[in-house]
Amino acid sequence: MADELSKVFAALADPTRRDIVARLASGDATVTQLAAPYEVSVQAISKHLRVLEDAGLVTKTKEAQRRPVHLEAEVFDLMTKWIERYRQQAEQRYQRLDAVLAELTEENEGKGQAS
Amino acid sequence: MADELSKVFAALADPTRRDIVARLASGDATVTQLAAPYEVSVQAISKHLRVLEDAGLVTKTKEAQRRPVHLEAEVFDLMTKWIERYRQQAEQRYQRLDAVLAELTEENEGKGQAS
DNA sequence: ACGCTTGTCAACCTCTTGGTTGAGTACGAA
DNA sequence: TTCGTACTCAACCAAGAGGTTGACAAGCGT
User: Fold this and answer.
1) pTM of the complete model
2) How far is CA B21 from CA A75, A101, B51, in A?
3) Which residue of B has its CA nearest to A17?
4) Percent of residues, chain B, with pLDDT higher than 70
């Protein structure tokens, strides 16, 4: 796949992966610990983790046979920045429209017309 | 597909769709206007717009033959809330770890050990 | 009434995704 | 050294995503 942002959004588009992120937010966990709550195979969860890792949302470290998974918070900033940029612009436009509508209402105030 | 959040993330996982969102942030546009910059067919863009619409990121209105597309800012809040929840938790844990490490360093200060 | 513009629907193709099972590696415990 | 645990790799499969082309509907302008 292509750019960082696409990978991050794609990774979080899956409910299972969002769930995993949610659990990692309260502490690191190994692959089998993460796989336990789900009905799917451990391999499937391993694949999910690789997607999260490729997106930079998560890192794996070695500890004997275990691979504790750790949530990386920094990548969230990338998303937040992207979102905020366009959310704010859209909201400003919305408020500008509000202002225009308010003006139009004022102008028509004496004319008794409010289509 | 399933839940709202999954649809929103999936919609924004595509660079073309993020690009469309970016352009819509500075004003509404018709389907052909939105399709113009890209090499793909108008139908492809129409599909992209339906994905964005299903995710609630965008609305279409009728205006003669044209279908002006409008960016809906509210849905971004859903994402922002989800992201912020886990980002903050992860950051807090990180800072707590920092504090623990600082304590450990202090304790070892007189012993000349700094592995 | 006719044609042009705008947009969607439908069928099709290819690549990706999320899942499976089976085998293999790496390591600690006995 | 042998066994069990933890995890990954590889091959495979069904379903979905993004693209194409072709046909069609809906409106405006002449």
Assistant:
1) 0.84
2) 21, 24, 12
3) B6
4) 79
Helix/strand/coil percent split, chain A, to 5: 65, 10, 30
B69 within 8 A of B57, measured Cβ to Cβ = no
Class at the top of the CATH hierarchy for domain A4-72? mainly alpha
Interface of B with A in 75-94 (CB under 8 A): 76-77, 79-80, 82-87, 89-91, 93-94
Flag whether pLDDT at A99 surpasses 60.
no
- Residues A7, A54: contact at Cβ < 8 Å? yes
**Which residues in 12-41 of chain B line strand D, with CB less than 7 A from it?**
13-14, 16, 39-41
Domain ranges (residues) in chain A? 4-72, 75-107
Taking the C-alpha atoms of residue A103 and residue A88, their distance in angstroms, rounded to an integer, is: 22
**Between the CA atoms of A64, A66, A68 and A69, what dihedral angle is there, to the nearest 10 degrees?**
130
pLDDT in tens, B21-76: 999 998 999 999 999 999 999 999 999 999 999 999 999 999 988 999 999 988 99
